[in-house]
Amino acid sequence: MNGSAQIDYVIAERRRIQVEYQRRAREVNSDRYAVWQPASQFMLDGRNRKAVGMLHEAGVFPIGASQCLEVGFGAHGWLSELIGWGVRETNLHGIELDPNRAEKARKILPMADLRVGDAVDLPWEDDTFNLVIASTLFTSILDPRVRVLLAEEIVRVLAPGGALLWYDFAVDNPRNPNVRGINRAELRKLFSDLDGNIRSVTLAPPLVRLIAPRCWTLATLVEAIPLLRTHLIAVLIKE
């Protein structure tokens, strides 16, 4: 990063996000997204199946020796999923702004390289990773300049032939002004140096919470309607 103005807006956005983390910890019931909730199970299952299929289809599904990074891994994000896919724990890397979330993840994955820091300045060399994951991350960043800086850092550390796995919502949440959806056009613009597929996924969460606990099959049928899906999943490859 160059110039004090740029540093100032990065600091301001970082502070805003940290305050929002604190608000969510106070106000959002932790059970809302717990894995035992049928809605959470439904969304995770659909997301993961789509990711596996797209990575395989693109020829970039990670193997045991793949070096993988998750930016904003939270309490452990996709990293545990990658172990299930066969990636060695010692090849898992991550960066997280919130030290409390990072500490929880370290207890789950003690052999992984999990760091606390700001992702606009990733502490890894160029062309390091075969797979970089950005999941429900960019929509929490409201300053478009910070989004661009983060995208540039992801591309920098991604190895040639490596892939970005993206999962995030594409529509605004009218109940939460602290997030902003990213549509296909903006996603393509952020990662104009990468090429690959973008698909819609995930039935709108309010509908999932209404339907999935009552009838999983009905939720699956409703999710097949494109207009009712709120998220994008993408596999974008660095040439």
Tell me about this structure.
By secondary structure, this protein is an alpha/beta fold. It has one domain: Vaccinia Virus protein VP39 (Rossmann fold), CATH 3.40.50. It is built from 8 helices and 7 strands, in the order H-H-E-H-E-H-E-E-H-E-H-E-H-H-E. The chain has helices at residues 4-27, 38-57, 79-85, 99-108, 144-157, 184-190, 205-211, 216-223; strands spanning 68-71, 92-96, 113-116, 129-135, 158-169, 194-203, 229-238. A 7-stranded mixed β-sheet has the order 3-2-1-4-5-7-6. Helix 3 (79-85) links the parallel strand 1 and strand 2 (92-96). Helix 2 (38-57) packs across helix 7. The longest helix is centred in the first third of the chain and has 24 residues, at 4-27. The mean pLDDT is 94.
Keywords:
7 strands, 22% strand, 41% helix, alpha/beta, single chain, 8 helices, Rossmann fold, seven-stranded mixed beta sheet
Largest sheet: 7 strands, mixed
CATH superfamily: Vaccinia Virus protein VP39
Radius of gyration: 17 Å
Query: How many β-strand runs?
Result: 7
Number of helices: 8
Give the termini distance in whole angstroms. 25 Å
Count of spatially separate domains: 1
CATH topology: Rossmann fold
Sheet/helix structural class: alpha/beta
> How does CATH name the architecture?
3-Layer(aba) Sandwich
One letter per element, helices H and strands E, the order comes to HHEHEHEEHEHEHHE
Percent of residues in helices: 40-55%
- How confident is the prediction overall: mean pLDDT? 94
**Low-confidence parts:** none
Highest CATH level, the class: Alpha Beta
